[in-house]
Amino acid sequence: MRRLPNLNALRAFDAAARQGSFVGAAEELRVSHAAVSRHVRNLEAELGTALFERHARHVVLTGEGALFAKTVGESLSSLEIGAGRLRRGFVRSTVVLDIESDLAVSWLMPLLTEDVLDALNVHLDVRVRPDPPRSVLGDADLAVSWGAVQCTGFKTERFLDPIVFPVASPALFGAGTKLEDLGIFTSNRLIHERGLYWWRRSFETLGLSLDDAAGHLFFNRSHLCLEAAVRGLGLAMGDDATCAAHLATGALVRLPQPEMPSRDGYYLLVPDRTQLSRPVQRVRDWLIEVAHQTRYSRKSAAIKRP
């Protein structure tokens, strides 16, 4: 017979450990603060050790609590993943792809043609999130994340290494405008996602001062920056993955300089199993293939560049 702590107590402890407070845990679990506090207190009594240091507005894991939080978190994650797959029907040909929203809009959606979906022959369930997954992926079969992450039940594979460069709508330039003209950078509005990092690097590389920019426009999602650039609202920073569709249709043009390697890359998270189901394997193989095509297109463009 298994001697396990109360499941509700473990869920309360896990939520409090992640939230750093009993109040936050109570809101996540939709129970009272008193219920969370009681569950954790009973769990500590059962284990014979303090799991948290209590403060006025927050709690901090003790050394023993941190070790136990890792064990509990991994165990609950495995349960969530397994239960989710059973609810969906593990043997069915549905593949859940967890992907960050910017990449989904700018890179994945243009690739999902009728022919591609027919060839994959799966029920593709695409789930987007505003930020990369950092912990539980629920019942996802595959995930694409910005930056390397460690998620229970998944192994991480390097996927895409973007090259960053400035882009703009061709409608922004008059007849005879040379894209090499540095005046383009100071006479047009600069479109940003979150911060000034890439434009600051670009202006430094070009020997320009960011203070001379004509104006700034900020968004908190990179696909909105690209959409604003397509609409002719200014210059945006793009890369060879997320801009591929816009560049192919001519909605955006790539300015010839500067070209910079990204600070990180995209990773593919694959279930850590000896053998994948055939539907999951097909989607994984397709993702790897289109990532390879992105790298090949980059090399071809580099060869053609004068």
TrEMBL record:
InterPro entries according to UniProt: LysR-type_TF_proteobact-type, LysR_HTH_N, LysR_subst-bd, WH-like_DNA-bd_sf, WH_DNA-bd_sf
Organism: Allomesorhizobium camelthorni
One BP term from GO: DNA-templated transcription
Gene3D superfamilies: Periplasmic binding protein-like II (3.40.190.10), Winged helix-like DNA-binding domain superfamily/Winged helix DNA-binding domain (1.10.10.10)
Listed GO MF terms: DNA-binding transcription factor activity; sequence-specific DNA binding
SUPFAM superfamilies (alphabetical): Periplasmic binding protein-like II (SSF53850), Winged helix' DNA-binding domain (SSF46785)
Protein name, UniProt field: LysR family transcriptional regulator
Top-level lineage group: Bacteria
PANTHER family: HTH-TYPE TRANSCRIPTIONAL REGULATOR, TRANSCRIPTIONAL REGULATOR-RELATED
Record flagged with keyword Oxidoreductase: no
UniProt-listed Pfam families: HTH_1, LysR_substrate
